[in-house]
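Objective 1b: paired records.
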Amino acid sequence: MEILNKANRIRLFSFNTPQMRAFHFSWFAFHICFFGWFGIAPLMAVVRDDLGLTKTQIGNTIIASVAITIVVRLLIGVLCDRIGPRRAYTWLLCLGSLPVMAIGFADSFESFFLARLAIGAIGASFVITQYHTSIMFAPNVVGTANATSAGWGNLGGGTTQILMPLIFSGLLMLGVNEAFGWRLAMVVPGIVLFVTGVCYYFFTQDAPNGNFAELRARGELPAASGESGAAQTFMAAAKDYRVWALFVVYAACFGVELTINNIAAIYFFDNFDLTLATAGMIAGLFGLMNLFARTLGGIFSDLFASKGGLKGRVRWLFIAMLCEGVALLFFSQMHVLTLAIAIMLVFSLFVQMAEGATFGIVPFINKRALGAVAGIVGAGGNAGAVAAGFLFRSESLSYQQGLFYLGIAVIIASLCVLVVRFSPEVEAEEAKAYADAAGEDTGAGALSLR
């Protein structure tokens, strides 16, 4: 599909154009999804005591929270192609708010496990965010737009670590006991999710020139594929080895971030003898790096592309992945709190830059199957989190040992980047598209703060 009037610049403080409204609503929606998705993580020490969970059971709930997202991410990209990102996001947010609030009814490991499994579906929001910004922004800034919207969404992993213990503490100050407090605290992200879903429907549109239904009625977009067409689109993406190479790469960066979001608070709480609030604040720093780190990954991807084309984007991703793996190895060996925090921040920087660099490449793999490509690669992140989850559910393996093995896995996964190739024709076509986008001003946006 060919979308017209994509913005070739980004005006961060503009809400006047459909491109910038999609940009701001998509990152905020993803941010709120993180709020609901990982809202329970910083309260796990309390939940553990209330429900009597073992380390293995906690590990199983961590796996559950990201496992279902693999399936939903694979499906949501194709759904975006059919009904558009606006309606897809609205349905996901509104329906996803229900299990977030319902987790408060959990009274056993089994019911808590099922609730976390259901909540994991809202993690598919990432694919919609990347899809929406990919069709709104031109090649010269799409890497930056994708990375920034996803990064500010991932920032929700940090704000959640900080806000949820504060909400919980506030409820305790009002006289609520701990067993009821963590349950009541989860109602907050649930309500925000539902309201955001309603706003997304009324304040955004699918593409620069209108919603998909309008574009199809005007003949500007092909008719929505039926089940067979959707299957063909998905298979076209699934048959491309580059998609699976990026699947592995994203498993080793975003999958690692999801894992850290799940274990960071309880890791610092147990290993450094901290209070729940302090552990949450420190764990939150990891996610807060998304304020700029993932954006940097996208900016560098666009800069490398200006000099080396699509090959430049690939080279940058390899560098970021390799540095991530090395930093994780160092983090796993830290026993002094201040050093652990410092190395965690360096590690976080490269994790998130690698994520931004990955989706600086995704829009160029197969434009006709963009939703399917984004869905498969995005699902890789959750597949990685599931695989990593098994390292942290064993009673015989410490968290530090798990992190060390994870660092080795990341370094090995970085080699997959080197198999991503583009034909000379595609390289030349995208180099021209980049030059054209960089050389003209559509008026749809601006790479500035104006």
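Objective 1b, second protein:
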Amino acid sequence: MASKANKIALFTINTPQMRAFHLTWMAFFVCFFAWFACAPLMPVIKGEFGLTVGQIANINIAAVAITILVRLVVGPMCDRFGPRKAYTWLLALGAIPVLGVAAAQSYESFLFFRLLIGAVGASFVITQYHTSVMFGPKVVGTANAAAAGWGNAGGGAAQALMPLLLGAMIMLGVSEGYGWRAALLVPGVLMLVMAAVYWRFTQDCPEGNYAELRAAGVNIEAGKKGGWASFKAAAANYRVWMLFVTYGACFGIEIFIHNIAAVYYVDNYNLTLAQAGMAAGSFGLLALFARALGGWVSDRMALNGNLNRRVTLLFILMIGEGAGLLWFANAGTVGFAVVAMLVFGLFTHMACGATYALVPFIDGKALGGVAGIIGAGGNVGAVLAGFLLKGTGDIRQTLFVLGGLVMLSALCAVAVRFSANPDEQALSASATA
């Protein structure tokens, strides 16, 4: 019978583990491209609808708010129905509001579709779940972080490519008002294509699909506590809530930066839309390697089986993220701002990777619930950052406050520490073995 992979054979798709690895990050990339496709076009959309700072803040909050609920639900659903079905349905249904936002004719309708688009952000949880059940403890941190990082780069790609796509539409003779709408059709179509590919070429775990395995009487450890039971088991574990906070302080900041970066560069440094898109896109494109680096370093530090080394790494990365964010908030020129953003972005993405390098070791029998709750923490952080921006009315001031809060939240990473008892660490590790 097939088992979890203990190495990442990057240049092959001959095994179910590597097919799942590559298709999860590709699906995640498409979802994140769709999720953030509106953000770099906001300066144009702002002008068309006459949006105020408060309305833009509402749109940013809406973009991440519903993801909290969907992430909480989709993790346990992976335990119940399997990641293959969960991802296929998320891609297919998520394409509807992505296509719908292009038809928005008012602030209210745009806000509504932007709210629904946030559901595709739950793709992250399915990605982490699928790689967690496919790879063994020696490489699961690297697999989780690499798949998440490469998928996350979809947000950066959207920042850089959507303004260029709009420009191409205008060159073809389409007006700016119709051009941004036509550009937003592209990610919706890509999601439908990816849904078909995911259904055809993946399976739930190394042994096969959950439904068939259960029908054959096979015990599925990773999906043992399905649905509500998975959620309750995860919610009762204090380490889950500590990582809920830390993930809010790293991934939540990442989402917030994606949503405000283009507007920030245009308003504060007088960049053009294309220049702002390239600057903002560089932050997201760090995910191509930085998340994977965080997971890889976490795996290397834990080679002797000491889970607390993973925890210490997360603490250090979050302190670096907070310090870098304070630097970014105080950058006086666009050159320093971009450098500062790349520095704190490196720490931010690595912290995200280091967080999910810990997730498989919290409770392997309720993996979906653990992944879902912690993943939802990222969106809670983004929503709270959005409300902070709405309260201050100033992006620079908001960034400064967030820098201090990130450094404070690093204390939650320390609280995740596992006991020195080797039996507990062995028990945690055995959940993914």
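Residues 140-171 form the longest helix (32 residues). Residues 422-433 have pLDDT under 50 and may be disordered.
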